[in-house]
Design brief:
- It contains 4 helices and 5 strands; from the N terminus they run H-E-H-H-E-E-H-E-E.
- About 15% of the residues have low confidence.
- It has about 150 residues and is α+β, with helices and mostly antiparallel strands.
- The protein has a 5-stranded antiparallel sheet with strand order 2-3-1-5-4.
- The chain has a domain of about 100 residues.
Length: about 150
């Protein structure tokens, strides 16, 4: 322990800390959001089982039984993961027959063409499956952007 009065103070004054954060946020590990910063695209890749079926073929509401009927074996999940990562995409999570994937907009546009804007109704946008993935992927869905403040509470 140092005696009082030796060396620099133990804490920066609040205003000095605030000024540092305001002037140089990147130096403090903060990220500044700007319109120029590219944001990743997030998509859901619906996988096919070995017979070529997917939950998109269910034809009714998805239940625990329906999803179990379209289970994807672990080796098929691993193959899908490897192939998507080889294209430059990041597999964020695997949830049953669906992989949550992200990547840069330019990569998505190279794979799928120009990306449409999500509809105002908040529905997912379905993208065409590239021929190189058609044997393992049944559909690619872009979820609608989140609605953070939908309206006043009732």
């Amino acid at each position: 322990m140092r005696p009082a009065g030796d060396g620099p103070p133990a804490r920066l004054p609040f205003l000095l800390l605030w000024a540092i954060l305001a002037i140089a946020p990147h130096a403090c590990g903060r990220t500044v959001m700007t319109d120029e910063a590219p944001s990743p695209i997030h998509a859901q890749f619906v996988l096919k089982d070995a017979a070529g079926r997917s939950i998109l073929d269910a034809g009714g509401p998805l239940t625990a039984e329906t999803i179990a009927a379209f289970a994807i074996p672990e080796e098929r999940l691993d193959e899908a993961r490897r192939r998507l990562e080889a294209l430059g995409l990041r597999v964020e999570a695997a949830g049953g027959p669906v992989l949550s994937v992200s990547g840069e907009r330019v990569l998505f546009e190279r794979l799928f063409g120009p990306l449409p804007e999500p509809p105002a109704a908040g529905e997912a946008v379905r993208l065409p499956v590239p021929a190189s993935l058609a044997d393992i992927v049944a559909g690619v869905l872009l979820p609608p952007p989140p609605e953070l403040f939908p309206g006043p509470a009732p």
